[in-house]
Every structure is written in C-alpha cells, then in structure tokens.
Model the fold of this input.
Amino acid sequence: MGLKNSQYQAIMREYEQKQLKSHDILTQHYQEVYEKLPEFKTLDESISHLSLQCGKRLLNGDEEALSSLKEEIAILREKKQKLLIDGGFPDDFLEPTHVCNDCKDTGYIGNQKCHCFKQAIINLLYEQSNLKDILQRENFSTFRLDYYSSNFIDAKTGKSSRQVIQDAYAICQNFVNTFGKEFKNLFLYGDVGVGKTFLSNCIAKALMDREYSVLYFSASKFFSILAKNAFDKNDLDAKNIFELIYNCDLLIIDDLGTEYTNSFIASQFFTCINERLLNKRSTIISTNLSLDSLADLYTERSFSRITSNYIMLKLIGDDIRIKKKLKNREEN
Done:
C-alpha cells in the first residue's frame, strides 16, 4: 500500500538476520550432536554418499535409483532419530528454529505477505512516524465527546462546541475510510487545547494500522529538517527524512506558526504543500493561527493552495488540557 522501496528493504534485512540466526543455532546444535554422538555424524555422511551415488545412477539412466535412495535414506533417518533421542536430545533438536513458523521467517506464504510481515510494516511505520508512543493514548477509541460543551456557542455559526466536534469527527473518520480512494487534505485550526492534534493522531494511527506511511512533525522540527537539507548537503539523515516528507502517504504538520518565520520558511512551506498536492499526497496541518494570520505569514500563494485544496475545520471550545488537569486533581 504505502510501503516505499527503502522501507521494504529494511524489513527484508530483518528477515535475513532472523534466517542467519536460525542457521547459526542449527549449526551449533549439529556440532553438539556430532561431539556427543560420533555415530550420528557417520549416518549423515552415509546419506550424503548415497545421494551422490544416486545422482550418478540417474545420469547413467537408472530409473529405479531414486526410489531405492528414498528407501535407504528413510532407514538411515530412523536410525538417526532413535540415536538422537537415546542420546538425551529433544526429538526436534535438529529442526530449524523460526520466529514465525508460518512463513519460516521469509515474510511470505506463497505469493502473499505473511501476518508477521504485515505487522513488521506497521511497526516500521510507527517507528518512522515520530508518533509511536502517543498513539497508544490518542486514537479514535480513546476520543471522548464529553470534553466538548453544548453550552459553548460559536457566535458566527450558532453551533455549539459539541456540534462542531461531532461534525469534525465524522469528517476525520471519512478521511480515513476513503484514504487511497479519494485525495483529501485537512486544515485544523482554532484556539489552544481544542483537540486539533488529538484528531490528527487519531487519523495517523488508523492509517498506519492499514499500512500507510505517516510522518508527524511539529512545525519547528519540520522546517528545521528542510533547512538542514537545503544548507547541509552532508547531513544524510536530513536528506532521507526530506525525501520521506515529500513521498509519505500522509504528512502531518502540527502547530504551524510556532516556528520563526522568514522568506525561506515561507518558500519551503509553499514548495512542500504544492508538490504534495501535485503528487496527490495527503497532508494535515494544524494551527492556532487565524486564517488572516496564515496569509500574512506564509504568502497569499500558500494561503490560496490551502483554502482551495484542504477541508477547513475550525474547532471551538474550552481548553481540554485544563479540563483534564482539573479532573485529575478532583480524582486525586
């Protein structure tokens, strides 16, 4: 779905390490058996010798060579197994050990990704998202409407804080359910503590669980990466992250406007959101800025791109962070 080639290669390297570890363990087990049971090694050598003889006979046109080999090898294997158990070893001591017995640590069952491969994708996406820990606390299953009051009314729209968040919640759910089918972007704005970041995190977790790549940055961190890529060509980490910023399935820029803004920042911001629009890569932006402030700080071009191509969600209400602190004090 959203897996990039570099991400795929990173996962496959993990599988290679698992296979190497399994091989090393099996080699060590064989050495232990050979040291304790020299006869076992002799039986193994006999099987190898028989296989070589069978190959020669087949090349010489002996059609019965293969069936004869199977019978003789079966007898030798029975002797090996009895010798192994009598020697005090578990009967599966010389079987390969795998982290995943379903795919034998290859990542695939036939042509289909194994369940362990799918989980590895999700784990990798979480690691690269910058959101791994917080998403356990902030997701759709932990979202609560009771922090939004029906008595907090927006004078312009006449809607309550509860009505506004219910509408926004439904839009965010739809954003997830249609992701990959319909190209959408979200712009969340409003006062501090009204749930903009929380909703972004809900979307991030839902999409990563579906194997889409998501990157989250605070605005200051985001522009720091862009600056490093532009001015420090030797910073390979910045270069790699820069590529992910442009190519990930979903980019989240949180708290836009908290960073120091200049012409370079404004230019980089426009280039990024414009390129992602052209390539149909979704973006979520959250900010405490008003729309007028956005236009002043990031140029009319950026403002136009956002208002024309993003779903604009203004959230209203009391500061939920303060409400949570007060509730915790009451409970304690």
The radius of gyration is 30 Å. The mean pLDDT is 86. The chain is about 60% helix and 10% strand. The longest strand covers residues 250-256.
